Amino acid sequence: MPAFIHCHIATSLDGRIARADGSVDWLLEGAPPPEAFGFEAFYAGIDAILMGRGTYEAVRAMGDWPYPGKPVMVVTTRPLEDTPAGVEIIGGGVEAAVAALESRGHARIWAEGGGQLLRGLMAIGRLDRLEMAVLPLVLGEGPMLFPPGTVETRFRLVEARTVEGGCLHLVYDRIA
């Protein structure tokens, strides 16, 4: 049975997932805690994490590795230095990464980001759920949640609620 691939991500009102310099400091300044968006329950239910190189570098820049005990696969063609325990590199692209995780029995995968990874998952029809914390901020520049070249994909709204500070918590399932 194919793994369920779930993206739980924060975005600005203009669809940016980081500043132009790659930083995500805006997520830590005045945003509600992750629990407000159901993150703790989500995280407890995943088997593995899949991320692109840019996301990996942004997470590493934030300090201590926040995912001890969870296997992490980073899709990149360049080597990584000083990787934490449980982090593995795969250079064969998104489809190869998903196949590798599934072959190890991982049934619930968090597609942490970024936009290129999501574009790749959508291209192969493997992004099952998109869960977004939308913060009331326009960044103007920076990587997009869905970069140019993302294939058309239809989703069905499963949940929408307002969170403190004017944020939105939106959950969509892909329509097969």
Automatic annotation (TrEMBL):
Cross-referenced Pfam families? RibD_C (PF01872)
Q: Where is the Bacterial bifunctional deaminase-reductase C-terminal domain?
A: 4-166
Q: Provide one Gene Ontology biological process annotation.
A: riboflavin biosynthetic process
Chain segments annotated as transmembrane = none
GO MF, one annotated term: 5-amino-6-(5-phosphoribosylamino)uracil reductase activity
Superkingdom of source: Bacteria
Q: Which PANTHER family match?
A: 2,5-DIAMINO-6-RIBOSYLAMINO-4(3H)-PYRIMIDINONE 5'-PHOSPHATE REDUCTASE, DIHYDROFOLATE REDUCTASE FAMILY PROTEIN (AFU_ORTHOLOGUE AFUA_8G06820)
User: What protein name does the entry list?
Assistant: Dihydrofolate reductase
Organism source for this protein? Answer: Falsiroseomonas algicola
